[in-house]
């Protein structure tokens, strides 16, 4: 069994009883840019470093030639079995974006949940997200299907990713009115160079209803690590193109400069500061960050213990506005 720290900090997701680490480990790289051995090593190191919150999805990594989707879940399931640590880990997965099971019709949600349970080799999914909203399906059908999975004991808590403020509010109101399982968290695209994708109406609905945010792209596809610079050397990464686009945005270089200044004061890497800023935002419980190798983990885990001063936060706020 993998050893982990008993004194590691935990935060509670929304109105649930899920106690998770303030940094979630993204599983999108497992079975993609990280093979099984690398993935096991990263998962071991994350748990040993105090983490307990692993995020995946049925669609990871269907975009890779030769893959069919579910590779990440399969790797995580094999790791759980080999380590015998199921009770130490909060597993989050998602439904709705797999090319062969897209949308959120009730039958699709239930079928995908069963498939994820089999791949993960577990009896209950701790946190089950709708991966993106399906405007063609009424919220009543979606929420009712999720509630049935909770009642059947196959899902512990439910959440939503990539959902607009209006549909989120409508879903919560229906769940409350009918006494059904309600979302406890949202997973938005949110980071220092992408604030308008969450701040505003969506964040207001989350705050008003006691939900938590678990942002993805927390490091902007790696841009906020500081590896991508104007005129800098090309970085060998599957995400290089996505990260480099932020250099063309006015705030990109400004944010990097602010990160450098704050990181130098604390003797940490820019990624650590970027994650610490995000974790301290209103409603945010745990940013998601992925690591392809064990060597990439320390600056991510270091964010949990970093507290920024009001002046440092203001500097980053201004650069990213």
TrEMBL record:
InterPro entries xref list: AKR_Detox_Biosynth (IPR050523), NAD(P)_OxRdtase_dom_sf (IPR036812), NADP_OxRdtase_dom (IPR023210)
- Domain (NADP-dependent oxidoreductase): residue spans on this chain: 22-320
Could you say which residues form the signal peptide? none
- CDD domains on file: AKR_AKR9C1 (cd19081)
Known Gene3D superfamilies for this protein?
A: NADP-dependent oxidoreductase domain
Q: Name one Pfam family in it.
A: Aldo_ket_red
> What name goes with this protein?
Aldo/keto reductase
Which lineage do the record's taxonomy fields give for this organism?
Bacteria, Bacillati, Actinomycetota, Actinomycetes, Kitasatosporales
